[in-house]
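REQUEST ID: PR-0412
SUBMITTED BY: lab tech R.K.
PRIORITY: routine
TASK: structure prediction, single protein chain
INPUT:
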Amino acid sequence: MTKAKKKKGLTDSWCSPPEIAVPLEAFFEGPVDVDPCSNDRSIIRSRLAFEVGGLILPWRVKDPRARGTCYQNDPYSKADLWTTKMLAEIACGNVQEIIRLSMFACSTRWWADMCYKPARNPRILALRRLSFLDPEAAERGMTRLTCRFEPALTYIGPRPERFDRIFAHLTRWSAWGRS
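STATUS: complete
OUTPUT:
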């Protein structure tokens, strides 16, 4: 990582805040199976967390309790690559349910792919601006940085009503997708 990347706010690899982590565990009734975009300071509980290799390795857990659940908070500068990988993991059956935290970028190709390529109609919640945990500041008590864009929480899976209910505290203005 270059010195410029270490300056406050210049990284796009921030940790999901408790406002996401706590309801995520409630939604999946325990830890998520796979967190393909993790880091050593993440507070997301998962059976399998990739700190590196999430774009290459299969998002599959060899555990009898695994149900094919996934949480994805990828580096936003690489959303196109992570969207392609996410859709491939859904298509091959490794992922049955996914919650993805991303920037709200409906004019991008990757956003259109996420919304229209899977046979499922994703549920999308427009969120209020979040204060992410700054992974570079762990030694200073995990300070928070507010994102500079509108985030979205996307769900692909069979329980959109549960998703809406559990994450309602974060919504800013609307939700759409199948109901």
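NOTES: Confidence is low (pLDDT under 50) at residues 1-10.
REVIEWED BY: pending
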